[in-house]
Amino acid sequence: MKTSSKDRISIKKSIRITFKIFHLKLLFLVCLLSLGIMFFESCEKETDTKHPLVIIHSPAELQNFSVFDNIPVNAKITDDKVITTIKVVLTDDQFISALPAVYLYPNVASYDLEMDYPINDKYIETGEYYLLIRAEDGPNFKNKYQKIFIAGIPRELEQIIVLTEKSTTEVGVSGIDKFNQINYLFDINGDYAASEIDSRYRQLYIAGINVINIQCYNLETHDMEWQQEIVPPLPLHPENCLYFDENLYASFTHYYINGYRWDGSSIFNTTVEENKLPSKIARFNDLLLADLQSKTGGNTYIATYYTVSGSEKQRLLTHYQVVEFLPLDNNNVLVVANEFDQGLLKVYNPYQNVETPIMEISGKINCAVKLSNNNYLIGTEDEIYVYNDEQSVITEVLPGVIAFRLKFDELNSNIYTVGAHLINKIKYPQMTHQTSHVLPDSIFDVHLLYNK
Q1: pLDDT (tens digit per residue) in 323-345
Q2: Residue 5 DSSP class
Q3: How does strand 405-409 pair with strand 266-271?
């Protein structure tokens, strides 16, 4: 059917009208979009960009305080809107929190801050700190620091913790106080392989052979705080299996060297092959050193493990048994060892896995401890020596004194020598005898308990 001329004109007119309507709608949408952009730009112009104002009136700059004091905090805090949060905290000179923060939520435009901030941690060391007041109004904040000085509590030796053999299944725990009095503390049911103490958390750690795995006791309450369950095979631990340095490390007669935090949670784990016995362990910087003795008469090694991952870094073939790993400098340790019945001193660099012989010592070495000024105390089956690393000289200082344990109190420059039933207190470096304690039971070990 043909379309007439009149119909064609009508169709064209309809198309033009439709196009105009579409154009008007599009123009309307563009206008709406423009209005929206203008609206949001207007909102952005009204966004809060002003920071709160913090004026500290107290404490004064470099004002002196002592541990267990309260810091009087007085400050004026204002904002053009509303102060939502105020944080008050003590930081060290690296701006890291040294004590828990206190939070306030005023929700007003002007706030007078008045409070006492307690220095309630006895482990705060002497030095400069910052009191930080942080004010927030939502999107903005202001940090205001005031430098102060805090005098910490001096570190002091509180008592000597003594562990003795009361029977084959009972360990006695006693303390020697500042007046040289021996005081009974408590007993532990079980056998004994090694012990350590943690002065910060007031804890005694003990490891056994067949009865105790690892137990932790509170030295204030004498209660057991946690224990690790016995995991066969037996025996569990070799002698001197524990090492403490901020965390506790323990070697097992089979398969493992583990590390624990003060609360008993795991911090380190590595495995040792079945025919090797980690007879001595020590932490050195970011590494754990282990003397791996052979259970079958094979090769012996010093093995090095990363404390973060527990993976083995390397091994060094040895022909001796380590008595102690003692720090020498940032890269080296002094290895005190025995080869058969002959004492040895060596330097070991665990980063390069290199060993350097120093000297032989007459007689078998029982124990060793680091003193001050690059001096080391070494006890043999016959006498006690001081070795000076700077001069590479060894000097006899206590002839005829036989010690199975040696402890050094660096605060008071006192040496404690421990025999089967005898504890001697000796002034260093004079090496003069001060006092002795004779105990009826055999002594397992002694530990120095400090107030912090």
Answers
A1: 999 999 999 999 999 999 899 99
A2: H
A3: unpaired
Bridging pattern class, strands 63-66 and 141-151 = parallel
- Cα separation, 119 vs 151, whole angstroms: 11
Domain 190-318 classified CATH 3.40.50.720?
no
User: Is the CA virtual torsion 310, 316, 318, 321 positive or negative?
Assistant: negative
238 preceded by cis ω (within 30°)?
A: no
Q: What own/partner pairs with CB < 8 Å and gap ≥ 24 does 153-157 have?
A: 153/67, 153/122, 153/451, 153/452, 155/411, 155/450, 155/451, 155/452, 156/411, 156/450, 156/451, 157/409, 157/411, 157/412, 157/448, 157/449, 157/450, 157/451
Positive or negative: CA dihedral 237, 239, 245, 246: positive
Each domain of the chain, given as residue ranges in start order, spans 53-151, 190-318
Q: How far apart are CA 361 and CA 351, in angstroms?
A: 27
Q: Hey, what amino acid is at 46?
A: E
Note the pLDDT tens digit of each residue in 89-133.
999 999 999 999 999 999 999 999 999 999 999 999 999 999 999
State how far the alpha carbon of 76 is from the alpha carbons of 55, 115, 129, 375, in Å.
5, 12, 21, 56
Rounded distance between C-alpha atoms, residue 238 and residue 281, angstroms: 11
For 141, counting Cβ atoms within 10 Å of its Cβ (0-12 exposed, 13-18 middle, 19+ buried), the class is middle
Q: Are 376 and 386 in contact (CB under 8 A)?
A: yes
Looking at the domain that runs over 53-151, which CATH code has it been given? Answer: 2.60.40.1930
Question: Are 172 and 166 in contact, with CB atoms under 8 Å apart?
Answer: yes
Q: pTM of the entire structure?
A: 0.82
- Give the span between the Cα atoms of 204 and 217, in whole angstroms: 5
Instruction: Report in angstroms the alpha-carbon separations of 106 from 49, 77, 143, 192, 405.
Output: 20, 10, 17, 58, 60
Q: Could you tell me if residue 220 is left (phi over 0), alpha (psi between -120 and 50 degrees) or otherwise beta?
A: alpha
**Residues present in the chain in total:** 452
